[in-house]
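Quick entry between incubations.
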Amino acid sequence: MREVDGRTKVSRRVFLRSTATAVPAAAMAAAGMSISPDAAWAQDAKTLTPQTMATLARMARDIYPHDRLADVYYITAVAGYDAKAGTDAAFRKMVETGVAQLDEKARLSHKSPYLMVAWEADRVALLELVEQGPLFKKLRGDLLVTLYNNKEVWPKFGYEGASADKGGYINRGFNDIDWLPQV
Amino acid sequence: MATFDLNDDSVVCIVGSGAGGGTLGNELAQKGIKVVILEAGGRHEIADFVNDEWASFAQLAWGDMRTTSGSWRVARDFPNLPAWIVKSVGGSTVHWAGASLRFQEYEFRARSTYGNMAGANLIDWPITLAEMEPWYAKAEDKMGTTGTNGIPRLPGNNNYKVLEAGARKLGYREVHTGNMSINSQPRDGRGACQQIGFCFQGCKSGGKWSTLYTEIPKGEATGNLEVRPNAMAVRIEHDAQGKVTGVVYVGADGKQQRQKARVVAVAGNSLESPRLLLNSESAKFPQGLANSSGQVGRNYMRHTTGSVYAAFDRPVHMYRGTTMAGIVRDEARNDPKRGFVGGYELETLSLGLPFLAAFLNPGAWGRSFTSAIDDYANMAGLWIVGEDMPREQNRVTLDPKVKDANGMPVASVHFDDHENDEKMRNHAYRQGAAIYEAVGAVRTFPTPPYPSTHNLGTNRMSANARDGVVNKWGQTHDIKNLFVSDGSQFTTGAACNPTLTIVALAIRQADAMAGMMSRKEI
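Done. Structure below.
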């Protein structure tokens, strides 16, 4: 069967222009972009705090955890929240309140903010306490698009996206399964 | 291409350009009858289609506001998207998968066959399979349905091969790549299927039949058909005698226009068609047009659906090739020993990664969900299409509060599964899982119904005027020059994808309508 190569592809040229805008996520992943308030991407936030941005990215990862995806895809998935908070005061308040409530629950049970709770299972238990709240609902719904509709993640799940421009699959493995029992 | 005057009251005005309206329009045009089709959506041609689920949804889907109620899960997960249908020239024939199945004989006689089902509002169709057979034959020839007219079936893709192997292991016998209105070889000026996938996003090769690039251009070529896109019908008008006189619509410029007409045919799919009749209420018809029975909007059916996805320890790549690539028909029979009446088909289905994430288990999160998505490349999938029970309280009404951009009340859709629907779905979930487990599935996912693609029954056909909205020709019982031409005519839903029957009924209706016109009955 024809398999899909899900490895991250980064060219040297992409590395060199990594300070430009619209940097491919793959390039940022290779550059060691991680979920931390100290990371440059979080520090670059204009309206929300680096701590809030990092918390959103951690929430995103805990809501839809895929070990095959580097942090950068979760960071990319929540990046738009900073800009939206800059133009929509109600949205900003909703995000900041939601993060504050989550941190408060984390401090009660773990004496640290959500971001610093070490085990995923413990963070998931905290998310379950807020899953009916507006921030969780909004973020989970948005992630369906901002995470799974990111074309860069598709090959990592073996999904190839558009095919008409490649002539369809008629000569590219539409019927190449080779492991089924004979019937 | 013809252009007709707004005051030309000799035209037949059809609302909607999909399987019903598009086919009726061409058939009438071929007979020399002047037709204006009002289509609410824009005209997106093959070159405009995109192999991208969300982008295509934004381009083609009916996204105007609707509301929901009832115990169906769609009301919770997608409260403003009860139906996944198309607002574009070609209607849902742009989006449909291509499955073209004839009703079985007993499925036209649901009430007689199933008896008096408590909580259901069953009647028999006023027509029989024998009456429909010649029209089915015309429809299959028109659409180029595989497995008919000497047209070979399509080759099976990976998703089909998994289904077939599992089904044969279970002992199922009627397993094949279906009767699909998708060209397996060039036909009727259209090429053969390129196994692109993305059948739901508009066929980029034109191999799949759609009124957009078959019926509509053929009708336009006669000089008798005008398709007016971006024309949202808001009201059908009538005269003092109660005959309809034309359709008021809002055009692309936001201005109201009035197309006069000799005959009006409503084909806006089963949510918009009853909505239009109800919104056309008047002093003479205070309950809405054609609604003396009170049945307009009632008996809404959506098929007993659901999906079973299954993960294997090796790759499948289900998304490669036709979306609906094959079928198991053995359960499509009436065998009450299974615990329910009526039957169901199992048909392969695949979704791309973005839509699988949205529909596999709406609202789910965490590792149970993401470990399923992690298996995307190793997944196979099928869809259940079963007959559901018509119920009076499953209905489309006008929302008392919510209005659209034109100030018209939106459609509100209420649905509760009948006990028979639930038993059938659970049976189908078990059989679907068993098929995949027979060939080594490591995990199966009984996936809830998507927003409805098969919307049926809300202006149903009945022998007796008190039981339904239209007669056996799709002509309303109350108003002789007002017709219904889409799936809302369906008396019952049968265990098959509805498009072939909608097209066959439209060809038949065109014949009947032309006869009535030439005899000056309408």
